[in-house]
Design goal:
18 helices, 7-stranded parallel beta sheet, Rossmann fold, alpha/beta
Length: 461
């Protein structure tokens, strides 16, 4: 797979990073949409995440959070020593306390006396109660107000600039939907000022000088948030949340004369789970290996509490390849009738029920949606997947056999790569295939507490 390399070569030699309207560069608003569309089309990937029903913003739980967030922005309350932009999709239920915690950022919240948290709803759902509920607000509020205010802010005076960048896009990338590019710029540009205003509202309330911004490297309007914080002298940080590699467009950028503009929109630092991940990507952000405290703690606890179920196979799906993973699950169900097949969906593909509903007809297949993935790994003997982060996470657990639908995105040391269902069946029955040769510490740094303490001390100097 060399699609991204070709796209980056074009990006490096083109003028895309030079187009701007006033102080706003246009390419950061477009890059993710253009690159993801081209890559998905060339590789035959499915739409990874379902769309949202925007009328659900009227749900009582969302309305309560919107009112609460409105009150925050109207108030003058301050004293926050750290700020986080996250997503409600990361919330998991703690069965013991019956409250929700952020599986990625919760350990980071504990490093601050008074963290300020903005969560983006997950398909217009919020999960309460949470430990830091008092300091948690809804990022959707900013998006909603920006959309309302944008109706009165036309960009017709910038038609020439918009036309120029759209023509450049067509010339460089042969993008099939030029009207889509135009629409993105016409709808997003009027919102930029509103997003910047809200950052300006937040910064004076901060006692600290660091902002953690989820998925910052995807740019878009999040790139504008990052840029504004940096202009205020606030250190911007993104924490790795999943798979990254040499073919992931959000974490690979060209070098050259666009370097300065890219640095304006990308986070100052990118914190990885282990050394391996930083070696796979090319970004102007400073890469720092810290580890994954949630995984480390889960592995330690679950390996004491959970024993793998005999003849258990965890098939890990993901939105881009749902149909391939469904085919594998169906085949294994019939070829290995004495095995239990647990089919784990990525949360983004759960609404696409038509893709996987046939699996309900198979007696030994269990469909799982929002279950704790670490618990599923711990209770399974065998893990099957494509390029999900779960395959790497499984290496951290003792004795797991890992089978990978053949692709160049996953290192051979992770497990056994197969090209057909028949080959997978034979490898499973072999009994010896699938054990990883890779060292878990290469992917998952262990001493997160020391690493993050050192990192925060260094950026505050």
């Amino acid at each position: 797979m060399k699609s991204l390399g070709r796209l980056l070569d074009i990006e490096e030699t083109s003028n895309l990073w030079e187009y701007h309207i006033e102080d706003n560069y246009l390419w950061p608003l477009l890059r993710s949409e253009i690159f993801s569309s081209i890559i998905n089309r060339e590789h035959g990937y499915l739409q990874p995440h379902a769309g949202e029903n925007h009328f659900k913003i009227l749900k009582p739980a969302i309305l309560r959070e919107l009112v609460k967030t409105h009150g925050f922005f109207k108030s003058k309350k301050g004293g926050y020593d750290g700020i986080f932009f996250t997503t409600e999709g990361l919330q998991k239920l703690n069965n013991k306390t019956q409250s929700y915690y952020d599986r990625l950022y919760a350990p980071y919240y504990n490093l601050f006396h008074s963290p300020l948290i903005f969560g983006k709803s997950f398909r217009f759902q919020v999960f309460r109660p949470t430990e830091y509920e008092k300091n948690t607000f809804l990022e959707d509020y900013v998006a909603a107000i920006a959309k309302i205010k944008s109706y009165g802010r036309g960009v017709s005076e910038h038609d020439a600039a918009i036309s120029n960048v759209c023509n450049e896009m067509q010339e460089q990338y042969s993008f099939p939907s030029p009207e889509k590019i135009t629409n993105i710029l016409r709808t997003q540009l009027p919102k930029v000022e509103c997003y910047l205003d809200y950052v300006d509202n937040i910064v004076p309330r901060m006692d600290g000088d660091v902002a953690f911004i989820h998925c910052a490297s995807y740019l878009g309007l999040t790139g504008e948030i990052t840029r504004r914080f940096k202009e205020h002298g606030v250190k911007t940080v993104e924490v790795q949340h999943g798979y990254v590699g040499p073919e992931h467009y959000a974490y690979n950028y060209p070098s050259g004369n666009a370097d300065r503009a890219m640095k304006d929109y990308l986070p100052d630092c990118y914190l990885t789970f282990g050394k391996y991940w930083g070696e796979q990507i090319r970004t102007p952000s400073t890469i720092v290996t810290v580890g994954n405290p949630t995984l480390n703690r889960s592995v330690e606890d679950l390996q004491k509490e959970v024993s793998p179920q005999s003849n258990s196979i965890l098939v890990v799906s993901q939105g881009t390849v749902t149909s391939k993973m469904v085919k594998i699950a169906k085949y294994l169900s019939q070829a290995l009738p004495n095995h239990t097949i647990v089919f784990k969906l990525h949360h983004g593909e759960v609404p696409f029920t038509h893709r996987y509903e046939d699996l309900k007809k198979y007696h030994n297949v269990q469909i799982r949606t929002y279950d704790n993935i670490y618990e599923l790994i711990a209770s399974s003997e065998i893990i099957v997947g494509y390029n999900s982060t779960t395959l790497f996470e499984a290496v951290a657990f003792d004795g797991k056999r890992i089978f990978i639908l053949n692709n160049d995105l996953i290192p051979d040391s992770l497990g056994y790569k197969f090209s057909s269902c028949e080959e997978l069946r034979d490898a499973i029955l072999d009994g010896e295939a699938g054990y990883p040769s890779a060292q878990p510490s290469y992917f998952w740094e262990q001493d997160w507490e020391t690493n993050i303490s050192s990192f925060l001390s260094n950026i505050s100097l």
